[in-house]
Specification:
single chain, alpha/beta, 8-stranded mixed β-sheet
Length: 283
């Protein structure tokens, strides 16, 4: 089974009706506290949520029940051979049901994670306490052709087992050199290699990109938090502005992390935990 980088995080081996997976857990159990459910992006895994989950345990012990699963074909999760409609959504529901979590604060990161979180909030509003989109301009997408080219290069490097090439591609898009990680996290090289390992676990590139669906702002009645870095290398400032203007201001809380790029929860995990807690405390 997979391991963790932080002693405060435990692994739950989970068999759902759809697939087997691993769920990272920190803090209290869902029976005793509000649950935070973290959804990772494509070409990553639940490992990328570990820094902020450890920060919650350090700064806000016993305040939340934090869960971060590996989605199908990522990390330690089983790769499904049969194509299912809206696979990420089906996977999220299967994990929540198997864990026994009825309602949770849903946090989605980047393109695929953000779209999956948004679709969950729209289609399962009775199970979603709030929605947080991290480094995501959902419901929009940046240039899809460019993204597919990038993912194709990643997929080829992964298939060849080329750690150096995959590492360079991740560095060139996910974070700004010299800013990873910040505020007391473990040594950057060790943490980066740990996160890179989860990318190299992929069998090629799973087809989990969630296509944006046309929606109206009125369809989302939940409080929404949007967080991104001002030095994001994957999504431009104009693309974030497009998403910001889509949501009513009375429903939206927006926080920009100075000096952070596409992974604010890894680069500035303590600040991220405090920002998310502040948002949730005012609901």
């Amino acid at each position: 089974m997979d391991d963790t980088f932080y002693p405060a995080i435990e692994l739950i081996k989970l068999q759902t009706p759809l697939f087997s997976t691993v769920v990272r857990h920190s803090g209290r159990d869902w029976q005793d506290a509000e649950s935070l459910f973290f959804i990772h992006d494509d070409v990553t895994s639940s490992r990328w949520w570990e820094p902020v989950m450890a920060a919650f345990e350090e700064l806000l012990p016993a305040s939340y029940a934090c869960y971060a699963p590996d989605l199908p074909g990522h990390g330690e999760a089983e790769k499904l051979t049969e194509s299912l409609p809206n696979l990420p959504m089906a996977a999220v529901l299967a994990i929540l049901d198997t864990l026994g979590i009825r309602r949770a604060h849903i946090v989605g990161w980047s393109l695929a994670g953000g779209q999956t979180a948004l679709q969950f909030a729209l289609t399962q509003p009775d199970r979603c306490l709030s929605l947080s989109l991290i480094s995501s301009n959902a419901p929009f997408y940046p240039n899809l052709a460019a993204m597919q080219t990038h993912f194709s290069r990643l997929s080829e490097a992964i298939r060849r087992g080329n750690y150096e090439a995959v590492g360079q591609l991740i560095r060139s898009t996910y974070y700004r050199e010299g800013r990873f990680p910040l505020n007391g996290s473990p040594p950057a090289n060790a943490l980066f290699f740990y996160l890179l390992q989860s990318v190299m676990q992929l069998d090629g590139l799973p087809d989990l990109l969630v296509q944006p669906a046309p929606i109206s702002p009125a369809e989302l009645s939940l409080p929404l938090l949007m967080v991104h870095g001002d030095a994001d290398l994957l999504i431009s400032a104009s693309e974030y502005k497009q998403a910001d203007q889509f949501w009513p201001t009375d429903r939206l809380t927006k926080v920009v992390f100075e000096g952070a790029s596409h992974t604010p929860m890894v680069e500035q995990p303590r600040r991220f935990a405090l920002v998310l807690d502040e948002f949730l405390s005012h609901l």
